[in-house]
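Moderator note: this is an archived Q&A kept for reference. The question asked for a predicted structure of one protein chain; the sequence and the answer are reproduced below.
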Amino acid sequence: MASSSGHSTWTWDAPVVPQPPRTSAFERLWRGFMTARIGVGLVLLILLGGMRLLGMVQVSDWQLALCGGYLAASLAVRFFGRPVAPGRTFDPQWVYIVGVDLLAFSVLHFLQAANLNFSPLYALPVLTASVLGSMLLGLGTAAAATLLLLVHASLQALDPDHTARIVQAGLTGCGYFVAALLANELATRLAREEEAARRSLSAARTQAHVNELVIETLTDGLLVVGPDWRIHAANPAARNLLAWQAPEAPASLALVSRPGWRPLAAIAQRTFSSQQAQSAELALELTAGERLHLRVRTRLTAAQDPYSDALCVMFLQDLREAEAQVRTEKLAAMGRMSAAVAHEIRNPLAAIAQANALLAEELSEPGQRQLSDLVGKNTHRLSQIVEEILNLVRVQQQPVADWLELDQSVAGFVGEWERQAQAGERLQTLLQSGTAWVTFDGEHLRRVVVNLLDNALRYASRGPGAILVATAMGSTRARLQVWSDGAPLDASVQRHLFEPFFSSESRSSGLGLYICRELCERHGATVAYTRVRAPDGSSRDGNAFTVTFRTRASMVPGGTPFDTIGA
């Protein structure tokens, strides 16, 4: 299966599950019998007409008309009738099918048209009723044909072979009954087998679709390889890992066709040789200077029949992603442990800070006061770290969104932070979002602004305008940007900026930016880092953290925000 958009989907070169037949066996049998009736009518018409033209026997016009009428009736049923499955009640369609057959053949047989014996033709309505109808209808038709034969034999009382004719009619009738029983039994068994096959086919198709969906969405790569290293199947994850962007079908490629895939061919060969599962960590040289480290596990499938080979199923896992997942799980465990420890530390830490404050009131020597100030600063720093860890736990709770006027709220938060940090001229604001309203919890927005300003203050220079807080209203969204003139961040640092407990300096807990991202995501906002020019129009480059909000552009009378942009 290939995607029409050009990118890969699960691809398999084995025979696909066949489509279910559009017509059932009953419909095909019905058409077959109706066609046979047309054939019988055509043969009778040609036979009697030919014999009349050749002058072999006396054939009247009404006999030819009867054959022509039977042919016309058969054609009408074949092309205009619909097959109806047998039921428990009598179906009128059998009147103009079986009834017409019995009537036409009986007239020809009783009147001895062209001195021919037409008794074998009764087999057609008997078989039609037995195969396409119920057992009762089949036996009834056989009984009717038998009675007709016996009546015809009884009417020939003056014939010297009268007794023999009755016996022959009885034996022929017995044959009709046996044929009806056997035909109905075979038809019933065929219907059961077809229904079972249809259910099995439906289950197989459903299972195949489920397997395709599961395999296609697997994050691990999956390859199916034959003993000749030919690739039988590959899911999208495997194609991405192996840089397989070409449109070739798997059947046209082999593991040995590309030099970078040779290690995979080697482990597949070991799997086939040992007939056991293999596991290894491989380094593939896909392009010059690019090495892909994989964890590969293999399994062998059982051969389905003596004419097919076992296949090697290879599971490919990118070691970088595996390590990232392990690191994320460790960070989550560390976060839970840190929150528990923070709760235990907060009370003793408060007691130490209070005791140090009381002690500082009685100290007079400069050296002792300096030591007390050092204790107070570090106690305050530990308190901030504990508070950030506890804030991280509170972030997991569902926020209560509110509508805030962006410029007014940011101005209040920035002013509060400036008084505490004493940034002075280092901090400037450019609030230009107008009357934009954003959906955000007020306390959560304050924490986002404070965390971004703390981060900017840590790396900004001490010159005027080193930190700029700007707001703006775009076409559909409002933006808040905290810019600082710090040095560019390394690419390795940028990749982990918003991870918990990651920091480029030892004096930071590494939770501030992570909390900002979590809070923004919970309110439908986004936060991102870029290296851009200062928002005041100067030519200075700096580090900018931009928060993009859902907005409302104005207030309606009564103080209710009116959503003009849409959340």
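Archived answer notes: Residues 403-562 form a domain with the Heat Shock Protein 90 fold (CATH 3.30.565.10).
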